[in-house]
């Protein structure tokens, strides 16, 4: 699965993706009990049960009158939602004017909506259907019932449901990613000065990570300092450390030596793809370390090759960028003789159309594109695999 290149022993692009998935399946992220507002996008680490029934009490489903026994009924009170109880027990022949969501008195048989009622002189009349227009306690969900299963994704509706069932927090798998952006020349604001460059990878990562089921917890910017990089990579709190830059073999590229010093298991050391060949994947204890090339376009390809499959496997979800259907490629492209090439494309009328501007140092093509088309080594012009951009 690996082959020698001028850069050493690189894995093939498909094998690198698989290796990232296998590492993710091997590492167990620690479940976290997160407040509801932070649990969005996670995967449930345990079943979620109803702490209260739904509804929690017998409630009116319409504005009108709670009644019992045969009509007409004598009005004995009124009940708004959330207001103190005005009538504890309703007796046959009695009615309470009631608002939607208000607790119906004990003994009430049904609610007669205003539209169907005739009222006046302290009395109400109308046709009722026994049991209608009351949301009976527990009829939707019984207390203690399992409503969401372990392994399911937490979407916005799940958060609302959990709140209505009495939960403050949810137990989720949501791998935390610590991002380390390296480079003396990299700046974080304004127009970069002579010889400097604005960080283009830090702003791109949170959205990509979130899409793959993780969360960027921290972004640090480091100069090309070996000691600081070693400290950041050894961060035991993160499930994943993503190091941007420092992936190549220049005098300021310390990642490989730092990993050796930390006795890391190096899983992928270079990938036979363009762009993005210096990418790297390693394990330090229970933390995965992903080395993203400094060139932003190459970093994005490395995210799709290593980081997204890793995060997906950590939470047991399918890789959201994978497409099963292959598409014809419409436009001029030049495959690489021995490496896989990823070309930024728009998806138009069942074909992949190159958008250009996809050199390793640029994100312009990726920002215009829907996806990357994957050209295998020495591509013969057949239909191509598609990797969706989030
Ligand atoms: N002798 C070799 N040199 C290089 C090789 C090689 O195989 N042999 N590979 C080239 C390729 S391909 C890439 S990609 C880069 C990878 O370099 P690093 O990951 O070590 O990154 P740097 O050297 O720090 O930076 C490369 C390039 O990207 C700019 N950069 C860095 N960080 C950012 C950022 N956060 N946002 C925007 N731009 C960034 C940096 O200024 C450089 O221009 O190595 C080649 N060299
Ligand atoms: O392959 Mo590099 O990763 O050209 O930018």
UniProtKB/TrEMBL annotation:
Keyword line:
Magnesium, Metal-binding, Molybdenum, Molybdenum cofactor biosynthesis, Transferase
Alphabetized GO MF terms = metal ion binding; molybdopterin molybdotransferase activity
Which Gene Ontology biological process is one annotated for this entry?
Answer: Mo-molybdopterin cofactor biosynthetic process
GO cellular-component term (any): cytosol
Q: Which domain of life is it from?
A: Bacteria
* CDD domains, per the entry: MoeA
Kindly tell me the pathway this chain contributes to.
Cofactor biosynthesis; molybdopterin biosynthesis
Pinpoint the MoaB/Mog domain residues.
178-313
Broad EC category? transferase
Q: What cofactor requirement does the entry state?
A: Mg(2+)
Q: Does the keyword Transferase apply?
A: yes
Question: Where do the segments described as Disordered lie?
Answer: 1-20
Q: What is its EC number?
A: 2.10.1.1
* Catalytic reaction list: adenylyl-molybdopterin + molybdate = Mo-molybdopterin + AMP + H(+)
Which InterPro entries does the record match to this protein? Answer: MoaB/Mog-like_dom_sf, MoaB/Mog_dom, MoeA-like, MoeA_C_domain_IV_sf, MoeA_linker/N, MoeA_linker/N_sf
Q: What does this protein do?
A: Catalyzes the insertion of molybdate into adenylated molybdopterin with the concomitant release of AMP.
Query: Record's family?
Result: Belongs to the MoeA family.
Protein name per the record: Molybdopterin molybdenumtransferase
């Amino acid at each position: 699965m690996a082959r020698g290149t001028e850069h050493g022993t690189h894995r093939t692009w498909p094998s690198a993706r698989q290796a990232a998935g296998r590492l993710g399946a091997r590492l167990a992220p620690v479940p976290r009990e997160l407040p509801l507002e932070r649990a969005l996008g996670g995967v449930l680490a345990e079943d979620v049960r109803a702490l209260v029934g739904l509804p929690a009490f017998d409630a009116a489903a319409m504005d009108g009158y709670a009644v019992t026994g045969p009509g007409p009924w004598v009005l004995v009170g009124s009940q708004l939602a959330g207001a103190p109880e005005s009538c504890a027990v309703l007796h046959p022949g009695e009615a309470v004017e009631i608002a939607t969501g208000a607790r119906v008195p004990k003994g009430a048989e049904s609610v007669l909506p205003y539209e169907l009622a005739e009222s006046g002189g302290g009395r109400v009349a109308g046709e009722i259907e026994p049991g209608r227009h009351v949301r009976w306690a527990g009829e939707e969900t019984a207390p203690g019932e399992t409503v969401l299963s372990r392994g399911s994704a937490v979407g916005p509706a799940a958060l609302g449901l959990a709140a209505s069932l009495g939960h403050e927090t949810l137990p989720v798998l949501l791998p935390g990613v610590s991002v380390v952006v390296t480079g003396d020349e990299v700046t974080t604001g304004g127009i970069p000065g002579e010889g400097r460059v604005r960080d283009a990878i830090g702003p791109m990562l949170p959205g990509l990570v979130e899409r793959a089921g993780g969360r960027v917890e921290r972004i640090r910017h480091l100069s090309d300092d070996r000691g600081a990089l070693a400290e950041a990579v050894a961060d035991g709190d993160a499930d994943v450390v993503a190091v941007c830059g420092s992936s190549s073999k220049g005098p300021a590229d310390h990642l490989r030596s730092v990993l050796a010093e930390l006795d890391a298991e190096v899983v992928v050391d270079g990938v036979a793809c363009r762009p993005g060949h210096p990418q790297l994947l390693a394990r330090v204890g229970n933390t995965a370390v992903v080395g993203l090339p400094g060139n932003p376009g190459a970093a994005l390809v490395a995210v799709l090759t290593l980081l997204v499959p890793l995060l997906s496997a950590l939470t047991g979800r399918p890789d959201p960028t994978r497409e099963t259907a292959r598409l014809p490629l419409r436009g001029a492209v030049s495959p690489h003789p021995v490496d896989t090439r990823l070309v930024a494309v728009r998806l138009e009328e069942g074909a992949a159309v190159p958008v250009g501007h996809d050199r390793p140092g640029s994100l312009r093509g990726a920002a215009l594109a829907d996806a990357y088309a994957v050209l295998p080594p020495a591509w013969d012009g057949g239909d191509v695999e598609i990797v969706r951009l989030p």
